[in-house]
Design goal:
Blueprint (H helix, E strand, L loop, with lengths): L1 E6 L3 H12 L4 E7 L2 H10 L4 E5 L7 H11 L5 E5 L3 H10 L4 E4 L4 H12 L7 H12 L10 H11 L4 H8 L3 H14 L5 H10 L5
Parallel strand pairs: 1-2, 1-3, 3-4, 4-5
Helix pairs in contact: 4-6, 7-9, 7-10, 8-9
């Protein structure tokens, strides 16, 4: 019987995932966490068969949480769940130790299939992403690979057309902090404007 921990800051998403999983005969327990602190609290007191982790959470982000989970509990499989297209975060998540990556728009059956696969020691990616992974992960490093996970997340949001205040609100950080991230991103990528970031992101299929 499987014990699955869901980590997402949106109550509606958590409840929806909980209902999907609870219908399965081989799922004994579904826990919920709304941020990284709750994730670590729950994994300390309960043994879980897998964690379903949202990649975008306020405070400590999903990728940072993933890396710490794998450091503390290397055998615990983590399925990253995201509203972002696979091309944006999947490679980073898998390189950081995720056992799988799924878009939130995936069908419920895919979620069940993914969880069963990773709890048996396998890896899960969608068929579409699977076709791209070998090419993506072996390609020559691009400028964005030099960015930290947080810097990368800020770049994606800016390139998607969000203002600094909107990015700050979404990431639960101050505008000053986001501005600092933006300066670092531009410096590392040798760019001068948001327009250049957007052009780069579109060219490399990081945003639509």
């Amino acid at each position: 019987m499987l014990k699955i921990l869901i980590a997402d800051d949106h109550p509606i998403v958590r409840r929806g995932l909980q209902q999907i999983l609870s219908r399965e005969a081989d799922v004994a327990l579904v826990g919920e966490a709304q941020n990284a602190a709750e994730v670590f609290d729950l994994v300390r007191v309960q043994q879980w068969d897998a964690v379903v982790l949202d990649i975008t959470m306020p405070g400590r982000g999903g990728l940072d949480t993933l890396k710490e989970l794998k450091r503390l509990y290397p055998s615990l499989p983590v399925l990253m769940l995201s509203m972002h297209p696979e091309d944006q975060y999947a490679v980073r998540a898998l390189r950081a130790g995720a056992a799988g990556y799924m878009n939130k728009e995936s069908a419920p059956d895919d979620l069940i299939r993914a969880i069963r696969k990773i709890t048996k020691g396998g890896k899960y990616v969608s068929p579409t992403l699977g076709e791209k992974l070998a090419i993506i992960m072996e390609a020559e490093p691009s400028s964005h690979h030099s960015l930290s996970d947080r810097e990368y997340e800020v770049m994606i949001l800016i390139a998607s057309g969000k203002t600094l205040s909107q990015v700050a609100e979404e990431m639960s950080l101050s505008i000053k902090t986001i501005s600092t991230y933006r300066e670092r991103i531009l410096l590392k990528m040798k760019m001068k404007s948001n327009a250049e970031l957007t052009y780069y992101a579109i060219k490399h299929n990081l945003v639509a």
